[in-house]
Amino acid sequence: MLDEIEAGQLDAAKKSFAWALRKDDDDTLFSLGEELYGLGFNNQAQRVYLKLLEKYPDEDVLRTVLAEIAIDNDHNDEALSYLNQIKPDSDFYLSALLVAADLYQTEEQFEVTEAKLKIAYQIAPEEPAVLFALGEFYRLVGKAEQAIPYYFALIQQGLLEFAKVDIAGRLGMAYAQAGKFDQALGYLEQVDRQYRSSDIRAQIGLIQLHTGDLKSAAATLSDLIKDDPQYTSAYPALAQVYAKQDNFEQALKTLQEGMGYDEYNESLYAQAADYASHLGDSQLMDKYLAKAHQLDPENQTITLQYSNFLLDQGRHQDNLNLLASLDEDDGIDPQAQWNAAQSYLALEQFDEAGQAFENARPSFETNPTFVKQLVAFYQLMGYREQMLDELQRYVALVPTDEEMALRLAQAETDWDY
């Protein structure tokens, strides 16, 4: 049958398979199941294992592989049924725990996954498959600090590679995610070149950037982009390197190159707008911020960045139109309320300005700039008591502002001020 599959004679292979199920001995059938599963003939492999399980109902190895086939076929309930039949006294209980943990992880039932892996660790605390599974799990769920001991335990056993994964690289990435950059760099630089993926090279560049080794970061990230130009997360990192060197022109050029490979990444446009501001190019800022907002209109960080720009440009109606797109049900950022208040005030829409100032007040009561604007607003509206309260608040915040202190003294003594 296997020879006929290799020769592409599938009709003949079907006949040979039927003959094998009837005539081959059990050891040969088990080997056939392994071969078929490896070749991706899951349904045929399943038939082999089911036939063997019917004859050997106590062989949990068959339940384990049937569970794996069921998972591959997206029959998760069927897989769990097989796994749950494997009891703790079985030689294959550990394997069943690991398969079940993997299954629950794919379904994002992380608490169950962790529980299964912890049981496996209690049974076999030095088993490489268990250590690796725990490290991978904690790395996946963002608990890098907890992943580190398991990867380190593998290295202590002399296992620098497991499941075709470079463990030094994994350990280095985990240290980096945990913010331990010196240890991270030490392990990442040990990764053999054949395993030094774009992810690892990018992480090395990010660590060099974070630690201020800008020359090395520029070289690492530039080489990565040269070798893998479609690794788009390298472009904003390299742009940051140039920005830290005050080379905003090159930073902007780098992001523009990245846009050629990832034209729908709103973060690239928002970052480019920031660098354009350092170059004094308001036209380019407007273009990139509009594009970033278009790509992700629900991103309040980008919306606020664009709003700040429009406010600075005195484009108050455009600013209000932009902020009107925010969904109140998701909660509007207080800075957006403050920005709206300033535009309403500039357009002499005083009721709306007053409401927006009030909405923003709880978040900015200790912000001198906000309080000073509120003083001016209340004075314009003739709200004397409120103006006096805000004057007092401002002078308490900025006692060195002699002009405002004088205004407060006059307001307190001259009610008609």
TrEMBL record:
The keyword Repeat applies. Keywords: Repeat, TPR repeat. It holds the Pfam family TPR_19. InterPro entries: CellSynth/LPSAsmb/PSIAsmb, TPR-like_helical_dom_sf, TPR_rpt. It comes from the Bacteria. The keyword Transmembrane does not apply. TPR repeats lie at residues 232-265. This is TPR repeat-containing protein. It comes from Limosilactobacillus equigenerosi DSM 18793 = JCM 14505.
